């Protein structure tokens, strides 16, 4: 295989695509802002972490040694508010939702980061960074509350392009008249009754939201690292404030590439918990296979907004079924020949197809991670497998066995790069897809088989109107019938759109 094209990524700081050059040759340091753990994660979270999982996987495919850090915010106003509503300890509540989040990530086939730090475990690092910022004259203490002085940050707004006057004072808290500038933000909050707190030089309290990521990224990756990622909603004020406070603590602080994913929209409005117009990951995966959700998200470029629709989820599910059904048929056909030694040259046409497929994938992915094109690029090798399988049923020749074996391996390898190769077996994924299709249809397996039996009787009686009606009714709820010599079976409605 030829060497992949140089990876280019869009840098939010410079507003342009740039060739990726890590600070240390062969190694990549990457920090992605994680969830605030106070509820089940929604599809917007899935969008972000699938996007950065794809980046993580592709960097590893390119041969880099990647240190990937994704944090948990487990100390926050929202967590405290929710815990009070449920009469639960805030740290206990957030710990529970951290676990739920990790379960969702496993379902979505997101590989674990190198480090998953939690704020509550890094108070020493946070307090130490705040102390440095104060010592450098960039923050001030007011009765146990510590505020960052944005006036001391000459490049404030360098990431977002916003003016200092545009800053939304008190992004997560009420405006505080004790601030020297309304745009100043909290680094440390003094303890309030019935809230968790930690001891600090400024009294008992807890950290502000922004300081958490600066302290944890510096602890795991150093003051200067390669990639910092998150959703576009974090550009301002969160990442802007991170830059300001990190540079205030250490003048050498630097991130080479800032990357941000687009929103998930519902009716052209950003989907989020605060707006109450969101779907949790669990709500979607109760009806659709998690990998169908992953494909749905990947069929839009990571920087563009995703418009949520059941129709597009259905298409993604159909695409996934076609992929796994093809692999299953290939596995079944090749099973008697797995141990055979095939000293046979790969057919030239198949060799060329594989080379073209891999080149297209690498070109799409190296151009700022165009997963939307990469997902579509699977169709050609899958069609080639199905074409070879049709011939294989008639004539089992060694070159054909070799062709199918190499095509199967290539498809699975690329699926793995994109996180589409399940940890379950191919057969298990097909059964999972059938189970989800039944859930969406509102029918049980027994009810479907009963309808098939009724249709069989109708066909035997030459009552084709009834036969067609049953087929159409099942098709309408997403189930397709296959008439085979051995009888009629059903599959989730499937096409190769």
UniProtKB/TrEMBL annotation:
Q: Which GO terms describe its cellular component?
A: cytoplasm
Pfam families xref list: tRNA-synt_1e (PF01406)
What organism is the protein native to? Acorus calamus (Sweet flag)
Query: What cofactor is this protein dependent on?
Result: Zn(2+)
Q: Which top-level group of life is the source organism from?
A: Eukaryota
**Family under the similarity heading:** Belongs to the class-I aminoacyl-tRNA synthetase family.
EC number per UniProt: 6.1.1.16
Q: What class of enzyme is it?
A: ligase
Q: Which residue range or ranges hold the tRNA synthetases class I catalytic domain?
A: 21-316
Is Flavoprotein among this UniProt entry's keywords? no
- List the Gene Ontology MF annotations in alphabetical order: ATP binding; cysteine-tRNA ligase activity; metal ion binding
Q: Where would one find the signal peptide in this protein?
A: none
Tell me the protein's name: cysteine--tRNA ligase
Q: Which GO terms describe its biological process?
A: cysteinyl-tRNA aminoacylation
Record's keyword terms, sorted: Aminoacyl-tRNA synthetase, ATP-binding, Ligase, Metal-binding, Nucleotide-binding, Protein biosynthesis, Zinc
